[in-house]
Design brief:
Length: about 450
């Protein structure tokens, strides 16, 4: 009964808010208080003085985020929705942003992969269709592990197909060519010297031998990527993506992957997104965060993570986010800039990132994250990510550096996973002479401001 009374009490302000926001506000119609704002028909109107009268101005367009929806999304279960108090902030005009090319940083690294905007053509094409061939091999010192058939066909590949379709907004499709058959390589796996993990290790010969053994069955002219599944007992301490040079089917393969059912480095079955991570390397992605730190934001940072998507910057260089979806600032803005960034997990043509160019090789990136098909986030993990990208830093050297208020918001049951805090509504962080503030958390993204610190 008491609960019922509370509900009635809450209904009154809700009705007031509703009638306020749905009143027919029109440009030029009368209003009561200078500076007050009202949202109507997708526009935000401000009450201004016109002669002796107070009238609504012509209004500015506001993004699709719906205040009422965000209020109910953030309310705890079984609690009535609370009325919204924050109006959608007014956005800076698009004219303040520079041409997107100003924020398409190029790397000067030539000896290894990098996160520069220009992808080396040696890597797999990240749009269109990529056909992956899986080849199962055995060696004179290592018999096949039958569990690998189901693992790679029923777990790893479906996860790869689903992940890249979702993460790329349907721009990348991965198809599979395989057979449940072992190709017996007439030499010991130890002969590749994979356990040494140095320049004498010949991972690429593993791929070459597998391709030669399988070429009677596979049409390599129709294959783009090669995965060689080795026995779990193969003599190696690590497996994964590698550079190769194999001429077959009228083309040259520059990328390959070795794998097995049991991961040799930790003697456990491979993680469900093992192959998602390794194929990411074949597209030219690297480990964007320091390897000793475990974050949850990126499948390339930590493959044990069961549900991380990719950073917006990575989607940008993979050509899944278009230049038209980026608000590029050529330098630190003198006046505060307000914008709306839609969550990167949503397929649309809306703005996904704000980028502030800091130098030839460095920029600040602001993106929004919400739970999505590729991003298994808890509600308190959703929010704004603020990071710098330095395209002259290679793998494991933190080309992406996250900034936040430092709070770890997620720890895995085994204590392994620390997720550096995303920014919530009202929170801000100072980076590179700028202050980034989350003005409002909407259902589909965040209103943010960037100002000189
Ligand atoms: Zn890796």
């Amino acid at each position: 009964m008491r609960k019922h009374l509370r509900l009635v009490a809450l209904l009154i302000p809700m009705v007031l808010v509703a009638s306020n926001s749905y009143a027919a506000v029109k440009a030029g119609s009368a209003c009561s208080k200078v500076g007050s704002k009202s949202v109507s028909g997708g526009k935000s109107y401000t009450c201004v003085k016109s002669g002796k009268k107070l009238v609504w101005d012509k209004g500015v367009l506001v993004p699709v985020a719906k205040p009422k929806a965000s209020a109910s999304a953030s309310a705890a279960p079984n609690e009535p929705a609370k009325p919204v108090t924050i109006a959608d902030p007014e956005l800076s005009p698009k004219s303040i942003y520079s041409d997107a090319s100003m924020c398409q940083l190029k790397s000067s690294i030539t000896t290894e992969a990098d996160l520069g905007y220009q992808m080396d053509p040696m890597f797999l094409n990240s749009t269109g269709t990529v056909n992956l061939a899986i080849i199962y091999t055995t060696y004179t010192d290592a018999a096949g592990d039958d569990r690998a058939f189901a693992e790679y066909e029923k777990v790893q590949f479906p996860e790869v197909a689903k992940f890249y379709s979702n993460s790329s907004y349907g721009r990348l499709k991965i198809t599979l060519t395989t057979n449940n058959k072992y190709y017996n390589i007439n030499k010991p796996s130890a002969s590749y010297n994979l356990e040494a993990m140095n320049e004498t290790s010949r991972f690429s010969d593993v791929a070459l031998d597998a391709v030669n053994a399988a070429k009677g069955d596979y049409d390599f002219s129709k294959i783009d990527a090669i995965l060689v599944v080795m026995p779990s007992s193969a003599k190696t301490v690590d497996l994964g993506a590698m550079g190769v040079r194999i001429n077959e089917g009228g083309k040259t393969f520059y990328q390959g992957i070795t794998a097995s059912y049991i991961n040799p480095s930790d003697k456990r079955p491979v993680f469900p997104r093992f192959l998602v991570h390794e194929i990411g390397h074949n597209f030219g992605l690297i480990h964007p965060l320091p390897q000793q730190t475990r974050y949850g934001w990126d499948v390339m940072a930590w493959e044990e993570n069961p549900g991380a998507d990719l950073f917006g910057w990575e989607k940008y260089i993979l050509k899944w986010i278009d230049p038209t979806q980026v608000n590029c600032l050529a330098s630190i803005p003198n006046e505060p800039v307000t914008s709306f960034v839609e969550a990167t997990g949503i397929a649309s043509s809306n703005t996904k990132m704000n980028i502030v160019r800091l130098s030839e090789s460095k920029a600040l990136v602001i993106e929004s994250r919400r739970k999505s098909a590729a991003d298994e986030l808890a509600p308190n993990e959703e929010g704004v990510l603020v990071y710098t990208i330095d395209v002259n830093l290679g793998s494991n050297r933190a080309p992406i550096k996250l900034f936040s208020n430092g709070k770890p918001v997620h720890t895995m049951p085994n204590g392994n996973r620390l997720l550096l805090g995303s920014l919530q509504e009202g929170e801000s962080v100072s980076v590179e002479g700028m202050k980034v503030t989350v003005l409002k958390h909407g259902q589909s993204g965040d209103f943010i401001s960037i100002s000189k610190a």
